[in-house]
TrEMBL record:
Keywords: Acyltransferase, Transferase. InterPro entries: Acyl_CoA_acyltransferase, GNAT_dom, N-acetyltransferase. It is an enzyme of class 2 (transferase). GO terms for molecular function: acyltransferase activity. Its EC number is 2.3.-.-. It comes from Micromonospora rubida. SUPFAM superfamilies: Acyl-CoA N-acyltransferases (Nat) (SSF55729). Belongs to the acetyltransferase family. RimJ subfamily. Pfam families: Acetyltransf_3 (PF13302). Residues 1-164 form the N-acetyltransferase domain. This is GNAT family N-acetyltransferase.
Amino acid sequence: MLLRDVDAGDVDAYRRMRCDPVMMADLGGPMPPESVPGQLRHDIDLVARGAGLIRMIVPDPAEPATVAGTVTLVRHEIDGEPGGEIGWMVLPEHQGRGVAKRAVRLLLDEARDDGRWSRVHAFPGVGNGPSNGICRSLGFVLLGERETPFRGEVFRTRHWAIEL
Ligand SMILES: CC(C)(COP(=O)(O)OP(=O)(O)OC[C@H]1O[C@@H](n2cnc3c(N)ncnc32)[C@H](O)[C@@H]1OP(=O)(O)O)[C@@H](O)C(=O)NCCC(=O)NCCS
């Protein structure tokens, strides 16, 4: 597996992830297709500004055109302190094979090597079994549950954090 920066060619992968009601069930529901190019531009700009890492998951480096999903780490102030929030998405045909867990581990390793990240937070929905499993098995500490506002809605989430 390798991770690469998001780029302008990722519009189809973005559409397949962001417009799918099942994929977006814990993320505020599907986006309208017309908002996808703007989201992609926003993410490319975010990386260019150094405000975060938006990485595309390529499961087999011998097939660089096949993208399985994304892992993201974005700078945020969380509970009044600077930190990073990590998130992940894996397309249905790649799910259930450990792709998300491996990609999250790789991104945490990159962030650790980068040296500019310290505490990384994750806020998976309380009912998101795989995402909470990823946090637990990669050494995140469970800090509690909270209501997390996201895209105009409020979600009941777990709060996990890891020190890099
Ligand atoms: C969440 C998501 C990224 C998981 O991707 P994935 O590649 O299928 O996940 P993995 O195969 O790496 O599995 C992760 C872990 O969850 C476990 N798991 C899988 N399904 C599970 C379930 N229903 N309940 C509990 N654990 C589960 C796996 O066994 C694995 O743990 P292990 O390695 O210790 O055995 C994917 O389902 C997705 O994109 N969903 C939609 C978007 C989303 O919800 N993103 C997260 C928002 S917080």
